[in-house]
Amino acid sequence: MKGLFITFEGPDGAGKTTQVALLAEYLKELGFEYITTREPGGTLIGNQIRQILLEPSYHELKGQTEILLYAASRAQLVHEIILPALEKGKIVLCDRYIDASIAYQAYGLGIDRKIVEEINRFASSNLKPDRTYLLDIKPELGRKRLIERNQKNKKHLDRIEQKDILYHQRVYQGFMDLAKEEPNRIIKINADQPVLQIFEKIKSDFHFFLQSRLMKGELSL
Ligand code: TYD
Predict the structure, then answer these.
(1) Which CATH number does 4-210 carry?
(2) What is the C-alpha to C-alpha distance for residues 158 and 57, in angstroms, rounded to an integer?
């Protein structure tokens, strides 16, 4: 039987990675079998693609190339890691997925959404998340957090993070539109609050979601 595919999305600096780790810790306590992964990357091949995508000096990278590289990393991750885990009945927690390509490449770069969707349908063999937690933070605040975090960790902004605020506002709009279109899958959570308060919201939704799936008999974990 199939497991569960849960994704986390949001503007840069929203704090997804922390929430993925908290939910993973919680699943461990409950005794569920799970894996965590991230995009772009999550595989040996995907991590090499990630390096190209995020290298701050690659200003010449074209939009078409960017879409295809995100999709290539995703294709590898879906087929090498995610689908086999789901087939074993595991819960898969993934830091970003196709919604990010709709927000960052279609809305952000202004590339036809239908094309981005079609490429990703192929790349993912049409695998869709069962549930998505969208951490809602205004791009201005996300950026501020990122800069503070990077100063602390002595890191530089990557190629995508370096893009101007107008780009990040379009990305934000993309996420908001997606949440409106698919309210049954995408759960929007205010990320401008303490980490543990955000996690409480995720945890309570996750419980509700798990119960409803178990009751409908759509899941056996
Ligand atoms: P992410 O791993 O979330 O950043 P961080 O290293 O801070 O945790 O994602 C890296 C960047 O890639 C981020 O700016 C969003 C961007 N991205 C896209 O533009 N399209 C995509 O399809 C994905 C998955 C990520």
Answers:
(1) 3.40.50.300
(2) 9
